[in-house]
Amino acid sequence: MGYFWALMSVLLVSCAQLIMKWAMMTLPLVNRPHELLTAFLALSPGAVALLVGLFAYVCSMGCWFLALRRVALSKAYPLLSLSYVLVWAAAIWLPWLHEGFSMGKLVGVGVIFLGLLLVCLPQRKR
Amino acid sequence: MSYLLIMLASLLSCGGQLCQKQATWKRGRRHLLGWLAFSVVLLGCAMLLWLLVLQRVPVSVAYPMLSLNFIFITLAARFIWHEPISLRHGLGVVLIIAGISILGGAA
């Protein structure tokens, strides 16, 4: 059950990032605070998406807390590195974000993932 | 500039996590609540900066770069709490730095 909550947390945090990205793309730029405020007060789709994204982020922290009550941190931690790969793949694949694929980015994300696994996987006692 | 923002957001969220660790370190309600409150402030600032980053950088580049967190946390564990760092952990950190550089170069 602990792994279920950890996995839920990873999925939620990944969704939160994608939703927040879409929201910030849709909302007016931050250097136009007046327009940004107006969009917020009018509850434009971008503003609603931002709130949904932030809510998903808070939920993911809740799931992580539930996971840690059941599984040791060292066992749940490696799952977190999945979210980096998930967000990368989804941002390229989802049509409403359509971020470009490049070999260099793939290698970069792959190397980061390997590094995270080395850092996070529990150490075997000899 | 955008990469600087990512680094700052990562530093702030690390600061928030370190405050949580500090909160559990000593007994006492006041100590706990004070550090937790400070942690929430830092995490809030990190989130605001992050939203700014999302307006400037593709999320497929920016988000993997947040693994900077693991580097800062490792450094803090080593130099603030004097926790030992294994060879494998150190190698992982080197790979993360390399990956972020490659990603930054490719973007």
Automatic annotation (TrEMBL), chain A:
<feature type="transmembrane region" description="Helical">
    <location>
        <begin position="103"/>
        <end position="121"/>
    </location>
</feature>
<protein>
    <recommendedName>
        <fullName>Probable 4-amino-4-deoxy-L-arabinose-phosphoundecaprenol flippase subunit ArnF</fullName>
    </recommendedName>
</protein>
<keyword id="KW-1003">Cell membrane</keyword>
<keyword id="KW-0472">Membrane</keyword>
<dbReference type="InterPro" id="IPR022832">
    <property type="entry name" value="Flippase_ArnF"/>
</dbReference>
<comment type="subunit">
    <text>Heterodimer of ArnE and ArnF.</text>
</comment>
<comment type="function">
    <text>Translocates 4-amino-4-deoxy-L-arabinose-phosphoundecaprenol (alpha-L-Ara4N-phosphoundecaprenol) from the cytoplasmic to the periplasmic side of the inner membrane.</text>
</comment>
<comment type="pathway">
    <text>Bacterial outer membrane biogenesis; lipopolysaccharide biosynthesis.</text>
</comment>
<dbReference type="InterPro" id="IPR000390">
    <property type="entry name" value="Small_drug/metabolite_transptr"/>
</dbReference>
<keyword id="KW-0444">Lipid biosynthesis</keyword>
<keyword id="KW-1133">Transmembrane helix</keyword>
<keyword id="KW-0812">Transmembrane</keyword>
<dbReference type="InterPro" id="IPR037185">
    <property type="entry name" value="EmrE-like"/>
</dbReference>
<keyword id="KW-0443">Lipid metabolism</keyword>
<keyword id="KW-0448">Lipopolysaccharide biosynthesis</keyword>
<keyword id="KW-0441">Lipid A biosynthesis</keyword>
<keyword id="KW-0997">Cell inner membrane</keyword>
<keyword id="KW-0813">Transport</keyword>
<comment type="similarity">
    <text>Belongs to the ArnF family.</text>
</comment>
<feature type="transmembrane region" description="Helical">
    <location>
        <begin position="79"/>
        <end position="97"/>
    </location>
</feature>
<feature type="transmembrane region" description="Helical">
    <location>
        <begin position="39"/>
        <end position="67"/>
    </location>
</feature>
From TrEMBL, chain B:
<keyword id="KW-0812">Transmembrane</keyword>
<keyword id="KW-1003">Cell membrane</keyword>
<keyword id="KW-0444">Lipid biosynthesis</keyword>
<dbReference type="InterPro" id="IPR000620">
    <property type="entry name" value="EamA_dom"/>
</dbReference>
<feature type="transmembrane region" description="Helical">
    <location>
        <begin position="32"/>
        <end position="54"/>
    </location>
</feature>
<dbReference type="InterPro" id="IPR022883">
    <property type="entry name" value="Flippase_ArnE"/>
</dbReference>
<keyword id="KW-0448">Lipopolysaccharide biosynthesis</keyword>
<comment type="subunit">
    <text>Heterodimer of ArnE and ArnF.</text>
</comment>
<keyword id="KW-0813">Transport</keyword>
<comment type="pathway">
    <text>Bacterial outer membrane biogenesis; lipopolysaccharide biosynthesis.</text>
</comment>
<feature type="transmembrane region" description="Helical">
    <location>
        <begin position="61"/>
        <end position="81"/>
    </location>
</feature>
<feature type="domain" description="EamA">
    <location>
        <begin position="6"/>
        <end position="103"/>
    </location>
</feature>
<keyword id="KW-0443">Lipid metabolism</keyword>
<comment type="function">
    <text>Translocates 4-amino-4-deoxy-L-arabinose-phosphoundecaprenol (alpha-L-Ara4N-phosphoundecaprenol) from the cytoplasmic to the periplasmic side of the inner membrane.</text>
</comment>
<dbReference type="Pfam" id="PF00892">
    <property type="entry name" value="EamA"/>
</dbReference>
<keyword id="KW-0997">Cell inner membrane</keyword>
<dbReference type="InterPro" id="IPR037185">
    <property type="entry name" value="EmrE-like"/>
</dbReference>
<keyword id="KW-0441">Lipid A biosynthesis</keyword>
<keyword id="KW-1133">Transmembrane helix</keyword>
<protein>
    <recommendedName>
        <fullName>Probable 4-amino-4-deoxy-L-arabinose-phosphoundecaprenol flippase subunit ArnE</fullName>
    </recommendedName>
</protein>
<feature type="transmembrane region" description="Helical">
    <location>
        <begin position="87"/>
        <end position="106"/>
    </location>
</feature>
<comment type="similarity">
    <text>Belongs to the ArnE family.</text>
</comment>
